[in-house]
Design a protein that fits this description.
This protein is mainly β. It has a domain of 86 residues: Immunoglobulin-like (Sandwich), CATH 2.60.40.790. It has two helices and seven strands, in the order H-H-E-E-E-E-E-E-E. The strands form two sheets. A four-stranded antiparallel β-sheet has the order 1-2-7-6, with no helix packed on it. Strands 3-4-5 form a three-stranded antiparallel β-sheet, with no helix packed on it. It is flat, with a radius of gyration of 28 Å.
Length: 143
């Protein structure tokens, strides 16, 4: 029997396969949200989904509130924070249940707070946040 010496190559490309494991050993485990997902309500109303966009004159915040009447929606602005809350009542047989969903958004300072408007149409609450005109520099003459 002949003994052969093994000399491993120093190619680091094989070590690259192990790098993700050593850098993030917990990456393959589920997140805390995924662990408790089965205990959260699976209703489409469980979260108040929101979309933001802007044009030249306005910022817009759109909230999905399907099947909700406008009397059940409350929009408030306090100290630069826009808060939207929705109250839903569901009746299943003899059991009644109510859910209150809310979402708060910090607004930029360039918002004209007195001209904010909200519109509920086809299950979408759209809040229009008009932008203020930027302050122009003022020239001051020296006496």
């Amino acid at each position: 029997m002949k003994i052969a010496r093994y000399t491993p190559s120093l190619k680091l490309s094989r070590m690259a396969d192990f790098n993700p494991f050593f850098r993030q050993p917990m990456a393959a485990l589920p997140s805390v949200a995924q662990l408790f997902e089965e205990f959260l309500p699976r209703s489409p109303y469980a979260r108040l989904r929101t979309d933001f966009f802007e044009d030249d004159a306005h910022f817009y915040a759109c909230f999905e509130v399907p099947g909700v009447k406008k009397e059940a929606v409350k929009v408030e602005l306090q100290e630069g924070v826009l808060s939207v809350s929705v109250e839903r009542h569901e009746k299943r047989g003899e059991a009644d249940s109510s859910h209150t969903l809310s979402r708060s958004i910090a607004l930029p300072e360039a918002i004209h707070e007195d001209a904010i408007s909200a519109k509920l149409e086809d299950g979408i609450l759209t809040v229009a946040l008009p932008k203020q005109e930027p302050r122009k520099p003022k020239s001051i003459s020296i006496l």
